[in-house]
Amino acid sequence: MGISFRKANEHDLDTIVKMLANDPLGSKRERNERRLPDCYKNAFQPISADPNNELIVACQENEIVGVQQITFTPYLTHQGGWRATIEGVRTLSTERGKGIGSELIRYAIQRAKERGCHLIQLTTDKQREEALRFYERLGFEATHEGMKMKL
Predict the structure, then answer these.
(1) How far apart are alpha carbons 142 and 126 in whole angstroms?
(2) Which CATH number fits domain 3-137: 3.30.420.40, 3.40.640.10, 3.60.20.10, 3.40.630.30?
(3) 136: DSSP letter
(4) Contact status, residue 69 vs residue 53, Cβ threshold 8 Å
(5) Per-residue confidence band for 1, with pLDDT thresholds at 50, 70 and 90
(6) Which residue blocks in the chain are alpha helix, DSSP H?
(7) Measured between alpha carbons, how far is 60 from 71 in angstroms, rounded to an integer?
(8) What per-residue confidence (pLDDT) applies to 91?
(9) Which of 79, 86, 110, 146 has the most CB atoms at less than 10 Å from its CB?
(10) Cα dihedral sign for 93, 95, 97, 103?
(11) What is d(CA 57, CA 68) in angstroms, rounded to the nearest whole number?
């Protein structure tokens, strides 16, 4: 497949936001505008400076074809174990169904193991039925009920 992974840089933000906005749910919450709003750069800076956050892009040749954020968090539970959380997994719309999402998740699992995590977790909107089936095929189980509160 020829996929490589690297940490995102600020120049990647336009492409990343375009991918985040390119689905029914993302189109309602992201701002994919000609001039990218400063809120994305303001969020990118602390993410990229934090050694426990990795914003990863998947590349085919020199083109970004996927993205995900992996956050590593220490917990007192599980005897002080670390866990990894995957967020914002997206692939370029023209490349969906070609295994890039699976490669992204396998990469995240590899990074979690390298960091000594005992658990890897993610959330996905219940409306994303295809995403739920995708994650289950990769070995994830819906073991908990997640809850959120918008502030």
Answers:
(1) 11
(2) 3.40.630.30
(3) H
(4) yes
(5) low
(6) 13-21, 26-29, 38-49, 77-80, 100-114, 129-137
(7) 24
(8) 93
(9) 86
(10) negative
(11) 7
- Quote the tokens at residue 82: 């670390």
Q: Are strands 53-60 and 63-74 parallel, antiparallel or unpaired?
A: antiparallel
Domain coordinates of the chain in residue numbers? Answer: 3-137
Q: What is the pLDDT of residues 101-147, one digit of tens each?
A: 999 999 999 999 999 999 999 988 888 888 899 999 999 998 888 88
Write down the mean pLDDT value for the chain. Answer: 91
Q: Which token pair is 70? A: 């992996």
Tokens representing 86? 């995957």
Report the SS3 class of residue 92. coil
- The b-or-e profile of 104-124 (16+ CB within 10 A means b, else e) is bbebbbebbeeeebeebbbeb
